[in-house]
Write a structure and sequence with these properties.
Length: about 450
């Protein structure tokens, strides 16, 4: 169980944030200098050097989005140029990519961050540049929403790359693409010129995720523990019925892959912020009730956050799966800090980086009721910004160490003399650590709150 530091303040993490972004700039430039775009997209490190791994193209937005975040924090124009130029020259195929559930990762991290900086006055206002970013985000949201499986009148989801029968926990954070496109006034045009609401699809996807990928302790099966998450839900498309949980990157359907859990904590928390500022009439226009929607999102975010707090070691960094088969060999592992160099199961720092931001957002949204979550988010951030997890080696291209990609497939490097993966980084882990540090920095300095929507 996480040992929450209730006295920690965002300002207390200033030195860690400063060090993170100092290292971050060096890592971004090192990758930019060495990386050949012909090799694909950098995904995770092998012996400290970023490498690609073909599965889906879901990490390129993190590569160039990281440069944009670096500019956001430092004001160093060379990083804005990298992010701007590469978004223009490289990211276009991601806007029209019909084969993935990752538009929120790729396009909100690039076009979205650039539009946000322009709206904040951090980039000189240029009408055509603004129009370009807005058009890109409109297209991205509509394309993502078109990758749709309708189960019945009330439920549906943006299907995973596994096919129309598959709903991933990850995809809740990709709903950002639908949210931004909706806020920009866009709709998805369907057959016979049907105008399909992007807000409605966002809400239906979220409800389907909450109903089938999240457990609430109501006895739906023998392993129904409140807040536990399934990575994947499988449906029978003949009649739209739910069939079973599954997992692609976790240990088993009835265990909890902690990065899948992390996506849900953050996805529901940030969508709560987005939905709360929409007027009631926008919900009633699509036949929903704002109060009920917010209550459902809060219920889901709190359940998964509570599970994370209870089933994560005291430092706030989880092992890769709460049911990993050799965790028992670690003894009372939940009542001491995580051990990245143990001989039995790897930790996943990327899950911590994602969840920490979700905990901060949920805590801030709930106010006095959410103080425990907010302090937990700071506690996890403090751990990640320490020398145990920050990559201090200038020859290592990663920023946050001890990230895991795909344990079941054996894709992660196990260093010589070790028995489990460690000492490596991932593009999503590094990006979300930067995003987390930006959230903390802005809170500490009373700067405009960092959010994905307009």
């Amino acid at each position: 169980m996480i040992k929450i530091d209730h006295n920690l303040k965002p300002a207390d993490l200033k030195s860690g944030v400063d060090q993170l972004f100092k290292l971050s700039g060096e890592k971004i430039l090192a990758i930019e200098k060495r990386w050949n775009p012909a090799d694909g997209t950098p995904v995770f490190t092998a012996h400290g050097k970023y490498t690609s791994r073909g599965w889906t193209e879901w990490t390129q937005g993190f590569q160039f989005g990281s440069a944009i975040l670096q500019f956001d924090v430092t004001g160093d124009e060379q990083f804005l140029k990298i992010g701007r130029d590469k978004t223009l020259t490289v990211m276009a195929p991601h806007l029209s990519h019909i084969g993935v559930h990752d538009h929120g990762f790729n396009n909100v991290s690039t076009y979205g961050n650039l539009l946000r900086l322009l709206n904040e006055g951090r980039i000189a206002n240029n009408e055509w540049e603004k129009n370009f970013y807005e058009l890109a985000l409109k297209c991205s949201g509509a394309v993502q929403a078109s990758r749709w499986t309708q189960l019945n009148v009330e439920l549906g989801y943006v299907r995973s790359f596994n096919g129309p029968h598959s709903l991933f926990a990850d995809t809740i954070r990709s709903m950002r693409s639908l949210a931004v496109a909706y806020q920009l006034g866009h709709v998805l045009m369907g057959e016979k010129d049907e105008k399909i609401s992007l807000l409605k699809r966002l809400l239906q996807h979220a409800e389907t995720t909450a109903r089938y990928n999240v457990y609430f302790g109501t006895g739906r099966d023998f392993y129904d523990v409140r807040g536990r998450a399934a990575h994947e839900s499988i449906f029978n498309l003949t009649d739209g019925s739910y069939r079973c949980p599954s997992s692609q990157q976790g240990y088993a359907p009835f265990s909890t892959w902690t990065r899948g859990l992390a996506w849900i904590v953050l996805g529901f928390a940030e969508e709560l912020e987005f939905l709360a500022q929409l007027p009631e009439k926008e919900f009633s226009a699509i036949g929903t009730d704002k109060k009920a929607i917010l209550a459902r999102f809060e219920e889901t975010a709190r359940a998964t956050a509570d599970f994370y707090l209870e089933y994560t070691p005291t430092c706030g960094v989880p092992y890769w799966d709460t049911g990993a088969p050799e965790l028992h060999k670690l003894g009372d592992y939940l009542n001491r800090p995580a051990e990245p160099f143990n001989d039995h199961e790897p930790v996943d720092s990327s899950a911590a980086a994602i969840t920490a931001q979700g905990l901060l957002r949920l805590g801030k949204y709930l106010g006095a009721k959410g103080q425990n979550y907010f302090q937990a988010g700071l506690t996890v951030a403090k751990t990640l910004f320490s020398e145990t997890y920050l990559s201090l080696d200038s020859n290592h291209e990663g920023l946050i160490l001890h990230s895991v990609y795909h344990r079941p497939n054996g894709w992660d490097v196990i260093p010589q003399g070790k028995k489990v993966p460690c000492n490596e980084s991932s593009m999503w882990g590094d990006y979300h650590a930067r995003e987390l540090a930006l959230v903390v920095k802005r809170l500490a300095n009373n700067e405009p709150y960092y959010k994905f929507f307009l």
